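Exercise 7. Predict the structure of ABC transporter permease from Alkalicoccus halolimnae.
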Amino acid sequence: MKLSLRKVNAIFQLKIKLILGNMSILFSPVFAIIFVIVMRNLLPEVDAGEGGAPFSTDGFLLSFGLIFNIAIAGISMSSSPIAEEKEKHTLRVLMTSSVNGIEYFLGSMIPILLILVTTNILIIPASGISFGEIPVLIYLIMTTAASLISILIGNIIGIYAKNQAQATLVSTPILILLTSTPVLRIFNEDFAEILNFTYGGVLANLADSFSLNSEYQWNLTDTGVLIVSLFLALGIFIYAYKKNGLDNE
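Solution. The predicted structure, encoded as tokens:
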């Protein structure tokens, strides 16, 4: 299958126009920032170690904001548009205009990834943590990798879903599990150990280390979880595309 950068750029430009013309697509990342700001003003400020409790308000908000943006926004922004275009048969028009599936996916994923990365950066000051308190390069690498995983998961759902309702139905249990990660890690130690081997748990560990004023140690477990999750999602996406594809839509 040939790959044309000109066609990828054409899809990229088309998606940018569609996103800017439909602000509902931007609702989730914008809401993630607003939610963190509002909750920061409502929740009491708790410092790490206060009263023996390993909890910090800033870290919790950063963790929740990241999970909300990367999980909910990442998956919904990538799954719903594919399902919508299949439902309205606009995808069929694209597939018959010499644009192949890989060009469509690349052109569609790049603007979503840019939005997620920008939101991940804006959530830092929104949560009350300064840029000087965190290793920005590690933060960007880990959150960008997690964002790519969510986009691939959304694409997989979009490939299998026949319409938007079906995409929402399939996405819901995944989103509930991912967005519950920061809370579940606090109230259940056994489940927290299991969640450490998910990319949502890795993000929560990263945010916690910043809020506890301890330097994050880039360890083999977190790196391995992100790499395995990324390649697993990519493998499933390639399998789903080869089996179902979009070229026949």
